[in-house]
Amino acid sequence: MNPAAPALESEGLGIRFGGQVAVDDVSCAFHPGTLTAIVGPNGAGKTTYFNLLSGQLRASTGAVRLNGATITRLPPSRRSRLGLGRAFQLTNLFPTLSVLENVRLAVQARAGIGLDVFSRAARHRALIERAHAVLAQVRLQARAAVPAVALSHGDQRKLDVAILLALEPSVFLFDEPTAGMSVDEAPVVLDLIEQIKAARRATVLLVEHKMDVVRRLADRVIVLHQGRLVADGAPEEVVASPLVQEAYLGRRPGRG
To answer: Are 206 and 241 part of one and the same domain?
Structure first.
């Protein structure tokens, strides 16, 4: 892949639900080694845009490209195999399986062995070792034997990130990764996201409401409002713009 080429891009991307336009003609490119925060008021279309990029929704108009290849009509599973990884706002786990087994299945899928829940763990020693290493990254190794359903909400979010890490995507989509997490739990996930960008030269997209998180992590901020892309630039410039102050922060120019 040309290093100057975007890893992920949307061109004229849009979707209608009946007569309502939820995402409207959004064109944006995202490059390796960058972290872009996507912000906007509730109902702005942020998660819907993520769903279009990752394949949970099919676009009404426009195109999605991953590493130059058009993936607009591919299902989420194919996009995942091509390197597009998504961590959801609501956790997407196998609740009755252990923490270790959830991650082991992701490692197994990445290795192309297949999702055989009932395969004997002894046959996949390397997969188990890799799964333990991923759990150590998210500080869940002590909870490896615990069923996912028994974890706290914060630990479930960490497990969701662990599964994403195990899949080793080149593009990471995080939808409010610290939502519902305690003050003590959130830094673990934020540190991981920083490490992903730095160590992997990955492309990271982050939907986030917390402006302190945006300022800490983002190289770039794009703003969606009523489904349209209304601002794109450095975090300080975008947050300070009159348009964002009114649309996102609810302030009119000239007022505190």
So the answer is: yes
